[in-house]
Known about the structure:
Order of helices and strands: HHH
Largest sheet: none
Helix content: 55-70%
Number of domains: 1
Radius of gyration: 14 Å
Number of helices: 3
Distance between the termini: 13 Å
Amino acid sequence: MSNIEEFYERTKKFADENKEDLSPEAVTVVLFRVALEKGADKMGMPLVCYLISKLMSVTLGVMAGDSAVTYNDVFEDFQDETKH
């Protein structure tokens, strides 16, 4: 399992086990806010917003059944900007 997948699984498990009585919308907002804050701290908000845009596009491609699209595609434009 890659570091990314391992981090994803640990984060997902933490969110599932520690959501208290929050609605799914509240959990989503909290996780999204953490992602924005952590990303902006290291990458800057413009690059984080661009990354999120790519993530949404890839997610739509996966949901649409495009077999040529993977979540690894999200990182294409960020090879020099991120360490993964």
